[in-house]
Write a structure and sequence with these properties.
Elements lengths: L1 H11 L2 E2 L13 E4 L2 E2 L6 E7 L5 E3 L4 E4 L6 E9 L5 E9 L2
Length: about 100
């Protein structure tokens, strides 16, 4: 019984599918879509920890966009919250030359 209940909980929580992002180039427009599955869509995306490079932002729809300003390396925690308030998160990074 415990195994079944544990499996059910994992299915109901949002899970971030994005494991890597394309590397942005300083001064060039950038756009990347974060992906999630599970839970009850639609998801509301937020930065749960860390920061994005100057010039980039994360929309509530999971789109990272903008024009980064300088060559930097950033690591952040992206979170997707479903309509029931359940959330999943993943550490991601952006690396610019």
């Amino acid at each position: 019984m415990t195994t079944i209940a544990s499996l059910l909980i994992h299915i109901l929580l949002p899970r971030i599918l994005t494991t890597a992002l394309p590397d942005p180039k300083p001064g060039q427009p950038y756009r990347a879509q974060l992906e999630a599955r599970g839970g009850q869509p639609p998801y509301r995306w937020t930065l749960y920890g860390g920061w994005l490079p100057a010039g980039l932002s994360l929309s509530e729809q999971g789109i990272i966009s903008g024009t980064p300003q300088a060559a930097e390396q950033w690591v952040f925690l992206a979170s997707a919250t479903d309509t029931r308030g359940q959330h999943g998160s993943r550490i991601l990074g952006l690396f610019m030359d």
